[in-house]
C-alpha cells in the first residue's frame, strides 16, 4: 500500500502534501485499525465499567454509543443507579442479579445447534458474578447454559450435569470459598475452563484470595484464571473461544 | 482427697511433714497427672520431632524411652540420619516414605471389625505426608486404610472408593496445590474430616498457603484443618476420634 | 441390588423401561442418598447462612423447611433482620448474642449423663462466636457447658475449670487476639480440641490472622482448626465427635 | 446404551452376570471414559511432572507408557537427571532450554496453513518457561511461532511483530518482573491471550507475585492467567483453543 | 561565623549572655535554616494534607499561612468540605477532580519554552490522582502537559503522543490495575520517570498492590516509584527535577 | 558548660582558637557523647553482629576492641567460624548453643541478692535464641535465671516456676510456633515482659510470623516485642530495665 | 504457711473443714493473689477497652468499679458515646483527643523530681495514639512530658529536645508512615524505648504494617514494640519501667 | 524528514524502491531511534544483568560489545565467576564489593566542580548495594561522593556530613532493616532523593519488605523508591538527574 502511494507521487497523481497525509494515515492505521477491525470482524459492542461512575455519566456515555446505532453494555451498575437511569432511558434493559444494564438492537440467540458456553456456579452466593458472566456472554452473541448450585460439597449435583457441561465449547466456572469447582470440572471435560474466583466467603478467604490461589494451583490442566469477581472477563474470554469452537463444530 | 489427708493428720496417722509432702504432691498432681493420666489411659507413646536433631540426640532420647519399656516414634527423620541410627539400634524400624523411625513392643492391629481411619491422598507427590499420617495412626493403635491418588481432577477415582471412605470412623485427607479434596470428601461422608494441606506445588501455591486457605474455607461442614505438611497432627486428631468411634461402633 | 433388578427383568417381573428407571434411580441414589442418609441417620437439620440474605428470603426458606416438619437454623442473622422475621413467624426463636434464628419441633436435652461439649472462650468480646457454637451444638442435639472469659492472661480462671473441661467429650475453644487458648487447653485435656479463631482484636491481628496462625501452629497435638469466626463450623465438627463419644461413654 | 443391554437380557442374549459386568463397565465408563475419551479424541499424550522424581522413577514411568505405544513427555527434568536417563533410553529427546524430555512416535507438524500458536516472551531470562510452553505445544500437535525478547521496555520490538502475533489463533505470553506484556499484546490482538507469569526478577517481585498480580489485573479484556512459571499449563490451554480455531479457520 | 562571635566576646563587644544566645541561635540555625533555605531558594509553598482534618482546621491553617503572604495548597479535600471552606474564603480555588484547594498570589506559568512535566495517565479512573499531580506541579511553578487515557491496552494512543512525552524534562506516570504504563514510557523516553501506582481496580489488585509491585519491578531502567495514590509526591519529585532540567535546557 | 568556655574567653584564659576548638568539641559532643556516655555510665561493651562477616573480619574487629582493653561480644557466630577464630585467639570464649563469642576482662556476677532477669523458653528448639539472650544478659552484667521447656502445652511446668519468675525484675520470654507463652507469663507477673518470637516451626508459621503476630496481639498488658529470633535485642532491653530495677530493689 | 495450717489442725486449733477452706483459699491464692497483689502493690486501676461496648455497658462497668472506690479508665470511647455517658455520670472526665474516659479519686502528680516518661510523637496525625499513651500513663501515676511533632523529616525539631528526652526514665515513641522515629530516638538515649506504630498513612502503609515492620527491624538496640495504635499498651509498659526507674533515681 | 523523501521521489532523485526503504527506515526509526538516540545523546553504555548468566555467556556478550568499541558493564557478577572471566579478559576491571565487572575506553572523572551524586549508606552490611550504585554512577560518567555508615541510630554521624550531602545534585540513599535513612536525608536536603531498600536484616524484615514499605511511606516529600537491592537502578535514575543538574549548576 505504501508502494502505491509512492508510485502515485512519482506519477504526479498525488501531491507531496496529499501523500504525506495518506502515509500518516497509514501509519496511524497501523494501530488505529486494531479497534476498527475488532468491531467490524468480531461485532464486540462497547463495554462500560459502571462502578464509580454516576448515573448521569453512564447515561451520557450510553446515549452517545446508542445514537451511533451501536450496542452497549454497562457492568456493575447497582440497582438504585439503574433505576435512576431507566427513568431517562426506559428502553435500556436492566438485569438486577447481574447488575448489568444494556441496550442491543436485536437480541437473537444463535441457533443453539452450534455450541454454547456452560456457566457453572458453586453456590447461590456466587450468583451475581455468574450472572454477570452469563448476561455478558449472551450480549456478546453466544448461547449460554447455566449450571448453578453445583458446588463440590454435593458432588452428585455436578455429576448429574456432567454430560451437558462436557458438550459446551468452553466452561466459565465461578466459585468462592475454597474455589475447588474448576479443578473438578477441568478433570471431567476436555475443553477449556475459564475459572472466576469470587470474594464470597469470610475470614481466611481474605476477599477471594483463597479461591484465587486454589484456581491458579489447579491440578487439572486446562484451567486458566481471571481476576476475583471478574464475571465479565470470564465471559469475554469464553466468547472469544466459543466463536472459534462453534465454527469448528458446524463443520463436524 | 485433701480431706482424707487432713483427717489423717487430725487422727495422728500422718505427721505434719508427711501431710505436707502429700499435699504438695497432690498439688503438683493437679497438673502433673495430666501427662501421667494421658499415658495410662490413652496409651499414647512418646513422639519426637526429628527435624533439627542430630542422629546422636535421637538415639539417646529413643534409647532412654525404650529402656523404660515405652514405645517411641520419631517423625521427620531423613534417610541418611535414619541409616546412621539403625547401625546402633538395628531393632528400630524405619519407614522411608514417611520419614518415620519407631520402636514398639508389639505392633498388633486391632481386630479391624470395629473401625478404621481412612487416609485419603490427592497425588503421589503428597505421599510423604500421607504416609506420615498413616504410620503414625497405626503406631498409635488404629487401623488404617489408604486411598491414594484420588485427586479431584479425576473425580471417578475418588467415587470408586466412596463407600469405603464413608465407612471409616474419621478421614485424614491430604492434599497440596488447590487443596480441594477435603471439600469433596466432606460432602460425601458423614463423619469428621481432618484436612492436612501440603506444601506440594509451585508458584502461587506459596509453600502450601493455597491448600491451607482452601481447606479453611471448605464449603463442606465437617472439615477441620491442621498445619501445612502436618501428617502427624492429622493422624493424632484422627486417632483420638477413632478410639471413641470404635467403642461406639462395637456396641451397635 | 443391581443383581435383583436384572433378575426381575430376566423373569419378566420388570419391563425394560421399569428396570431402566430403577437402575437410574439406583445410580442417582449412589450420590443422592448421601443427603438422605445424613438426615435420617444423623438427624442433622437444615442450616442457612443468613448473611447477605434478605428477611424475606430467610422467611421463605425457613417456612418451606418448617412446613415439611423439619427443624431449621439460620446463622448470622442480625438483630434488625431477626425482628422483621419474628413479626411474621413469632414461633421462631432468636438468640441475639449468637445472631441465630431457629425453629425446632422439640428441644429436649440429652440426658446429660452421657457427655457434653465444652465451649471454652477467651474473652467477652468473643462471645458472639462462642454462642454461635453453643447454640448450634445444642440445636444439633448435644449438651453444652460454657466456660467463658477464661483467657490465658488470667490462667487461674482456666485452671479452676480444668476438670470439667477434661470431662467433656470434645472442646470447642474460641479465641481472638493471640489465639493462645487452644494450645493451653490442648495440653490439659486428652480429647479433641476444635479451635475457632476470631477476628477480635485490632492492628496486627489483621482480622483474625494472628489467632488463626497461632492455632495452626499449636504445640499441643490434639488441636484442629476451622475458619475465622466460624463458630458454627466448630460446633458442627464437635457434634459429629460428641455423638460417637457419647455412645462410647454410655457403655463404660 | 443401557437400554440395549437390558433388552439383550430380556432376549436372553446376555446372562445376568454378563449384563452386570457391562453395566458396571458402563457405570465406570461414566467417569473412566473421561481419560479414555480424552486420549482417543484429543490425542493428548501422557504428561509427567519431573520435579521431585528420581531418574529411575522417570525411566520406569516413561518406559511403561512408551511400551504401550503411547507418546510421553516429562516437564521440569534438570540436565543432570536427563543425561542419566538418556544413557538408558537414548531414543528419548531432551530439550535443555525447556527442561523437557519426551518420546513421540512421529513428530510431524500440521501443515502450518491452518493456524499456529504465538509464544511471546518478554526477556531472555524467561526463556526456560517460554520454551517449556513452545515444546509442549509442538509435542501436543500444534504449530508454534516464537516471538522472544519483545518486552515492553522496547515496545518497537513487539510492534515489529504485531501482525504475525495477530494472525495466531491464540497467544501464550510469558513475562516476569512487572508482567506488563500480556496487557499490551491483549490490546493489539483479537484472539485469546494466555498469560504465564514467571518468577524471574528479584526483590519486590516476590518470586513471581508482581507479574502474577499484574496479569490478573490486566486492563485488556481477553487475558486469562495460569500459575507462576507454568509454561506447560499455558501451552495446554492454548492447544485446546488452537485445535478448535484451526478447524474453524480451515473452513473460512 | 562562630569565630566572629568569639572575637566579639574577647573584645567585649558581646556579653557572655549575648554570645550564648547567638551561638545557640547559630546552632539551631544549623537545622532550622533547612526550612528557611528551602522556602527562600525553592519557593516551595506550604502543603497541607487535608484528609482527616475538619473544614475549620483547614481554614485556620490556610488563613494563617495566607496572612503571612505565603502561597498555600491543601490536598485530599473532598468536595463537601471544600464547599464549606469556600463559603468563608471565596478567593480560594478548588479543583474538584484533583480534590485540591489552594491560594496563590499570582499563578503565572513559566514561559513554556524552557521545559515541562508530562503527566501520563492510563485510564479515566486514575484521573483524580493524575490531576492531583498536575495541579500540584503547576502550583509549584512548573509547566505541565497532560497525556490522559493512554493505557497499554491501546498502545497506539500512547505512541501517538510519544514525541511530546519524550520532550518533557520528566514524566509522572499514573496507573492502576497492572501498572504497566511506566515500563512502556520508561522504554520510550530518556529522562526520568516518576511512577505513581493507584488503588484503582478490584479483586487481586489488593488496593494498589498489583500496580505498586509492577512498577518496582519495571524492566525499564529510569523508573522510580512513590506511594500508592500519591499524586502529590510524584509531582513534588518531578518539580525538583524539572527546575534543574529547565535551567539546563535554557542554556542549550 | 558553654557558659564556662565563654567566660574563660572573656577572662583571657582561653584564646579564640582554643575556645573554638572546645566549642566545636562541645558541639560534636552534643551527639558524640551519646556513645561515650553510654559506655562510661552503662558499661555496655561493644557488640558485633557476626552473621555475614568472615572469621578474619571478626578477628580484626575483636582484636582492635580488646587491645583498647574493652570487652567485646559477637552474636551469630557459627561453630565452624568460631573454631577458626579460636585458633588465633584461644582466650576468647565460645558458647556453642548461643552461637556467641566473647571476651571480657572479668566476668563476675552481681551479688545476686539484688535482682535477676528470667529467661523463659517454650521448647528445646528455641534454645539457641534463649541462650543468645541469656549469655548476652550475663555479658552485659545482669544475673540470669533460666526457665526452659515450660511451653504452654504443659502449663504445669510453667506454674511450678511461677514464683521465681515473678521475682525477676524483668522476663525475656522466647517462643516459636504459636507464641503463646508471653501472654501466659504476662498474666502471671507484674513486671515487664520482653517477648522474643522465634522462627521455630514449619508450614503456617511462615518463618516466625505466627509467633510474632501472636505476641503483638497479647491480651496481657505488660508485653512488648522485639524482632524474630532477636535474643540479643530481648536481652539488651531487659538489661536496661534490670539495672534500674536492681537499684530500686536494693533500697527496698 | 501451709505448714502453719497443718500444725493448727494437729493442735486442734483448726477443724478439718476450716483447714480445708484455708488450704483451698491458699491454693486459689496461688493464682488469685496475682490480681490482688498487683492492685495492692502497684495501684494499677481497672482498664476497660471501650470499643465495641455500648454506652450503657460502659456506664454499668465503670459504676460498679467506682462504687468499690476504685479508679477506672476506659480507652477508645468515641466522642458521641462519651457525651451520652457524661449525661449520667458528669463527674467522669473525658479526654477527647485521647478518646479516654476515666474517674480517679485524686489525681495528684508525683513530685516530678524523680523522673518522667517522655511521650514522643512523629506527626500531628498520630496525636490520638500519643495522647492515649500520655493520659494512660498519667492516670497510672507517672509524670509525663510530651514531645510532639518531632518527626524525622525535620530532624532538628527532635534534636532541639534531645536532652529532655534523654533524661526521661523511658520513652514511648509513637509514629505512623515509615515508623523511623524510634530508631532515631533509640540511638540518642540510653534508656528503654517503647515503640508504638500507628495506622496513620495511606497506600503501602497497609494500615500500619509499614511502621510496625520498621520498628521491629530497628537498628537501635533498646527498642521494643507493641501492637499498632496501642497507645495504652505502650504507656502500660512504660509505667512499669518508670516505677522501678524512679525508685532507682531517688536514691542516686 | 518524510517530506524531504517525498520531494526527492517527486524530483526523481529517489526511485520508489529507494524511497520505500528510507521510509521504512524512518518508520522503524520511530521506535528504533530511541536506543540509538539514547546512546548518542546520553552516552549510556550497555548494561548486563550478570545473575543467572554463565561466565561464558558474559564473556561472549561483553566481547561483542567491546569489539564495537562500546563501553560495557555487568552487575551482579559473583567473585568466582569474575575470576574465571578475568582469565580470558584481563583488561576487564572487577570491583569485588560491588560485584561489578566492566570495561571502559577511558574513565575520566568530570571536573568535579559541576556537581556530584551523594551515595548515602546506613550500615556496613549494605555496602554491596551502595557500591553497586557508586560504581555504576561513576561508570555512567557522574562524580560520586560516598557517605557510608551514617545510619539513623547514630544520627550525629549523618549530621556531621549534612552540608556535603546537601550540595549533591541528587542523593542515592541505601538502607536495610527499618529503612529510615531516606526520610531523614529527605528532610535535610532540597534535591531529589532516590531510596534503595536492601534485603539486609532478618526476621520481620522479610527480605527487604520492611525497608521498602518504610521508604514508600516516607514523610519527607522528595523521596522516590526503586526495587529492593537495586543499587544499579538507583544510580541510573540519579545519573539522569545529575546530568541535568550539572548543566544547570554550570551556568549559576
UniProtKB/TrEMBL annotation, chains A, B, C, D, E, F, G, H:
It comes from the Bacteria. Residues 115-247 form the PurE domain. This is Nickel pincer cofactor biosynthesis protein LarB. It comes from Virgibacillus xinjiangensis. The gene is larB.
Amino acid at each position: 500500500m505504501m508502494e502505491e502511494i509512492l508510485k502515485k507521487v512519482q506519477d504526479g497523481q498525488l501531491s507531496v502534501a496529499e501523500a504525506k497525509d495518506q502515509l500518516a494515515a497509514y501509519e496511524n492505521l497501523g494501530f488505529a485499525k486494531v479497534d476498527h477491525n475488532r468491531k467490524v470482524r468480531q461485532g464486540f459492542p462497547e463495554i462500560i465499567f459502571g462502578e464509580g461512575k454516576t448515573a448521569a455519566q453512564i447515561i451520557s456515555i450510553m446515549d452517545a454509543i446508542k445514537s451511533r446505532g451501536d450496542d452497549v453494555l454497562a457492568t456493575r451498575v447497582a440497582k438504585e443507579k439503574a433505576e435512576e437511569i431507566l427513568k431517562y432511558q426506559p428502553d435500556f434493559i436492566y438485569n438486577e442479579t447481574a447488575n448489568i444494564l444494556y441496550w442491543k438492537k436485536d437480541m437473537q440467540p444463535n441457533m443453539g445447534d452450534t455450541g454454547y458456553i456452560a456457566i457453572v456456579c458453586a453456590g447461590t452466593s456466587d450468583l451475581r458474578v455468574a450472572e454477570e458472566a452469563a448476561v455478558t456472554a449472551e450480549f456478546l452473541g453466544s448461547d449460554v447454559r447455566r449450571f448453578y448450585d453445583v458446588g463440590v460439597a454435593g458432588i452428585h449435583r455436578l455429576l448429574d450435569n456432567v454430560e451437558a457441561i462436557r458438550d459446551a465449547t468452553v466452561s466459565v466456572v465461578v466459585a468462592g470459598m475454597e474455589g475447588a469447582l474448576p479443578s473438578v470440572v477441568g478433570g471431567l471435560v476436555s475443553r477449556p475452563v475459564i475459572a472466576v474466583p469470587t470474594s464470597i466467603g469470610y475470614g481466611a478467604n481474605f476477599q477471594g484470595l483463597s479461591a484465587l490461589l486454589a484456581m491458579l494451583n489447579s491440578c487439572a490442566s486446562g484451567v486458566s484464571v481471571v481476576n476475583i469477581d471478574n464475571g465479565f472477563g470470564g465471559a469475554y474470554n469464553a466468547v472469544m473461544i466459543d466463536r472459534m469452537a462453534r465454527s469448528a463444530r458446524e463443520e463436524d
